[in-house]
């Protein structure tokens, strides 16, 4: 991908023979953007990013660019989206026949822009033109310069991280570093939050393979996950944490506003009070050398606004604003308390057929109607009997992980695990899901402290670094386009400082 940056240095009037005297043209060729599309609706063949692993040339890019890489995993309610169009000067120069300057304008082109842009940077780039032609931006959609959905998140995060080095200001792209962007199916109907959790399980197994691919190539890995993207991260870390050879294969994991229970990193499974009992990631801590948990009590998705003024100052979109109303208490809280996915016929695949049992969908439907629990349990255990080594090997060669048991993000699936799953599903159908109050979100109040000696020890050992952003982060997605203070306190002083001290960021 070629990025063209034109910086006029004299009068913007083009006359024959005046290019060399009046213009300085700089062309920077960037590495192509890197997206790994793990979505359920991806279209291999049509979308070049629909794949499970990185390409050889992408691995070489990171090896030659500091031998380090940063992965970013977006959160809940983010559609795939698209990039915005490139911009181009049109009708500029000098009309020889009329002996007058043409009136230039900036227009959208068919090319796609894969670097972040905003109004101030554009106006700075075309300052001389804009001063002489005030209507230069008349035909440009300045509100949607960076596309939509996950693509807009990817451009923003890549730009923020490069700027956080203190050596990039969108004028010199010689050190500009690409990150690996993970797209997954988190954009389910908001009330169907648990369905997104199941999709996160699938994506997490694939992310684990990407991490293995990077580390096997000698590339040091950092990961930033936002919101429910932290479940994708935790699933991957929990799988890798059970492999002795993968211990601390991630240098730094940044859990930003994690939409996960505050006990998700505990080594005590009994602390999991969720409906499906599927928030036990007791091996995850082994996978990363450092885990930074960034949380804020101003997060209006993971909890309620603390007071009326917070609601009035809300910087989020309409969904975030409504979610933060005190009587709602945050979408995360509503989803965890309700705990029951909205099952329609076409959504029945949320209960993925374990171990590739092709007939289990029909069996499951009959069980729902006929309550044939014995036959369901027998079918489950028969499959365990035929596969004594479980779903995964030590190299994470999954027989068919896309049809794996949604709760089985563990390395080995044994009789006990199948029994637990059976009991959980039975309890779910029997609506036995109100006995315990779900745990609060880690991204709202931080980790469970005091009572969990294991977590406290990890904090003392600097294995886990809690960062309270309550004074700087005022909405769930506030880090996408950060305020100056949030950018300084978090991007620069916390995230980038740690990355540069341990692995470096690209060639910075």
- Bulk shape: elongated
Going by helix content, strand content and strand pairing, the class is alpha/beta
Low-confidence stretches: 1-14, 322-328, 339-370, 388-412, 431-435
Instruction: State the distance separating the first and last CA atoms.
Output: 21 Å
Number of strands: 13
Main-sheet strand order equals 3-9-4-10-11-12-13
Evaluate the radius of gyration: 25 Å
Helix and strand run: EHEEHEEEEEHHHEHEHEEHHHHHHHHEH
Give a quick set of tags describing it.
508 residues, alpha/beta, seven-stranded parallel beta sheet, 14% strand
Structural write-up:
The protein has helices at 19-22, 56-64, 119-125, 127-132, 149-164, 193-216, 229-240, 308-312, 318-323, 331-338, 360-370, 373-386, 415-429, 442-445, 453-460, 484-502, and strands at 2-8, 23-29, 34-37, 68-73, 85-90, 94-95, 100-101, 105-112, 180-183, 220-226, 250-256, 288-295, 464-468. The protein is of the alpha/beta class. A seven-stranded parallel sheet has the order 3-9-4-10-11-12-13, sandwiched between helices. A hairpin with a 4-residue loop joins strand 6 (94-95) and strand 7 (100-101). Mean pLDDT is 78; it is low at 1-14, 322-328, 339-370, 388-412 and 431-435.
């Amino acid at each position: 991908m070629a990025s063209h940056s034109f910086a006029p240095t004299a009068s913007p009037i083009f006359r024959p023979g005046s290019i060399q005297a009046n213009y300085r043209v700089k062309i920077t060729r960037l590495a192509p953007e890197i997206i790994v599309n793990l979505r359920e609706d991806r279209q291999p063949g049509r979308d070049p990013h629909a794949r499970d692993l990185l390409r050889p040339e992408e691995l070489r890019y990171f090896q030659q660019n500091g031998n380090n890489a940063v992965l970013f995993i977006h959160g809940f309610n983010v559609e795939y989206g698209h990039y915005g169009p490139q911009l181009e000067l049109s009708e500029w120069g000098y009309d020889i026949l009329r002996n007058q300057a043409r009136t230039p304008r900036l227009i959208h082109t068919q090319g796609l822009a894969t670097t972040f842009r905003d109004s101030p940077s554009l106006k700075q780039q075309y300052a001389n033109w804009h001063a002489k032609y005030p209507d230069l931006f008349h035909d440009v959609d300045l509100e949607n310069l960076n596309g939509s959905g996950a693509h807009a998140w990817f451009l923003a995060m890549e730009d923020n991280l490069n700027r956080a080095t203190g050596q990039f200001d969108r004028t010199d792209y010689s050190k500009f570093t690409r990150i690996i962007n993970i797209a997954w199916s988190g954009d389910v109907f908001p009330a169907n939050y648990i369905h997104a959790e199941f999709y996160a399980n699938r994506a997490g197994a694939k992310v684990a393979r990407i991490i293995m691919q990077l580390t096997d190539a000698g590339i040091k890995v950092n990961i930033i996950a936002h919101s429910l993207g932290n479940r994708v991260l935790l699933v991957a870390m929990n799988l890798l944490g059970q492999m002795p050879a993968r211990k601390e294969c991630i240098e730094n994991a940044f859990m930003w506003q994690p939409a996960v229970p505050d006990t998700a990193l505990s080594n005590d499974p009994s602390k999991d009070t969720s409906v499906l009992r599927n928030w036990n990631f007791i091996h995850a801590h082994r996978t990363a050398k450092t885990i930074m948990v960034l949380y804020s009590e101003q997060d209006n998705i993971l909890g309620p606004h603390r007071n009326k003024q917070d609601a009035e100052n809300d910087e989020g979109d309409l969904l975030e604003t409504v979610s933060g109303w005190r009587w709602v208490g945050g979408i995360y809280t509503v989803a965890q308390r309700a705990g029951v996915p909205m099952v329609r016929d076409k959504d029945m695949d949320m209960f993925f057929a374990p171990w590739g049992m092709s007939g289990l969908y029909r069996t499951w439907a009959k069980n729902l109607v006929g309550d044939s629990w014995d036959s369901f349990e027998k079918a489950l255990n028969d499959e365990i009997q035929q596969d004594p080594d479980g779903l995964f090997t030590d190299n994470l060669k999954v027989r068919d992980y896309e049809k794996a048991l949604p709760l089985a993000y563990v390395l080995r699936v044994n009789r006990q695990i199948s029994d637990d799953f059976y009991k959980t599903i039975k309890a779910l159908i029997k609506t036995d899901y109100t006995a315990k109050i779900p745990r609060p979100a880690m991204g709202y109040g931080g980790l469970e402290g005091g009572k969990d000696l294991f977590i406290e020890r990890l904090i003392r050992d600097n294995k886990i670094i809690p960062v309270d952003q309550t004074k700087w982060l005022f909405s769930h997605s506030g880090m996408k386009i950060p305020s100056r203070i949030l950018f300084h306190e978090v991007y620069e002083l916390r995230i980038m400082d740690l990355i540069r001290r341990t692995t470096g960021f690209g060639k910075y």
